[in-house]
Amino acid sequence: MNKNLRNTLATAVTAAVVLCLCVLAFLWSDRSLTPNQLATGKLLLLVCGCAAAYCFVVGELANNFSQMDKLWSLLPIVYTWIAAIRGGLGLRSVLFALIVTAWGLRLTFNFARKGAYSWKFWTGVEDYRWAIVRSSSILRYRPLWMLFDLFFISIYQNLLVLAICLPALACMGSADPFGWVDILAAVCAVGFLVLETVADEQQWRFHQNKKRLLEQHKQLERLPAPYDLGFNTTGLWNRMRHPNYLGEQGIWLSLYLFAVGAGAACRGIFHWSLIGPLFLVLLFMGSSTLGESISARKYPRYKDYMARVFKYLPLRAFRK
Q: Are 73 and 111 in contact, with CB atoms under 8 Å apart?
């Protein structure tokens, strides 16, 4: 079994267990939650449980394990608007939900143009990484894969999506006025959203152009630069290996600041709802490691790219 893949799976299982315990413990033990917040949290958890059951059952029956990938961009819109409506549609909560809605619609569009959605909702293009993970020496056995599907793909990822939205729960009914922290949260979140949008668009155009050139030349070695490398090194990708991942993590860390502005963070800037964005960072650590191990095997020059360009810091450019 590939070392990177083994480490990624170990990280994923550990994160799943810890996140489940933390969210459940904090949600039921935090005495600062109002009855309305606690009731809303239970409602969100019910929606999350139904989504997890749907992803597992439909994924197993259809043999397509990207069911959660399809819901990833839609569930946060539902969660944040439930919190906003039940909280009385305050300015802070509505702005939080609007930013999440813009994020979700953009991500849904980006995923849809890759063929992920279909009128037969259980079909569509599956994320290529699931097939690679399924082929590992451990998970190729069906019972073990079903357990991985249940606990990581279905339960953990659904719980993570709920967890990153928990700052919206902390904002419900806050008496603290809308202030500079909320403005900072909105500006940073929108800025990271623009970064992620530009990065995804550059990635999409690069691979569409590469696909068109491959149809003409048939051999990858005959493609002109920069398409001859096989992977994108143009635009933002010339300065960072994962500008889209940076944007995604930055959005949710920025949205957490709304909870700080709402006065939920009674100890400086820390509140237990920060656990969702932090676990999202952990997920991207594993996802980026897995993706780069696949790219390094597929493209001869990718290791050189990794050595010359930082993952998130735009301090060096790639030169062929």
A: yes
Give the separation between CA 54 and CA 121, rounded to whole angstroms.
12
Residue 278 lies in a domain: yes
d(CA 208, CA 202): 10
* Number of domain units in the chain: 1
The residue behind tokens 């735009």 is: 314
Q: What is the DSSP letter of 1?
A: -
Contacts (Cβ under 8 Å, ≥6 apart) of 104:
73, 74, 76, 77
Does residue 318 sit within a domain?
A: no
Which of 2, 12, 71 has its CA nearest to residue 284? 12
Q: What global pTM score does this model have? A: 0.87
**254-263, 264-273, 281-290 — which is least confidently predicted?**
264-273
Number of H helices, E strands in the chain: 13, 0
- pLDDT tens digits for 273-305? 888 898 888 888 878 888 888 889 889 899 999
Number of Cβ within 10 Å of residue 243's Cβ equals 23
Residue 110 belongs to domain spanning: 3-308
Residue 317 lies in a domain: no
Provide the residue type at 274 as one letter.
Answer: L
Q: pLDDT tens, 41-59? A: 999 999 999 999 999 999 8
| Rounded Cα gap, residues 264 and 171, in angstroms | 7
Contact (CB, 8 A) for 20 and 156: yes
180-204 burial code (b ≥16 CB/10 A, e <16): ebbeebbebbeebbebbbebbebbe
Amino acid 213: pLDDT:
85
Question: Is 92 a member of any domain?
Answer: yes
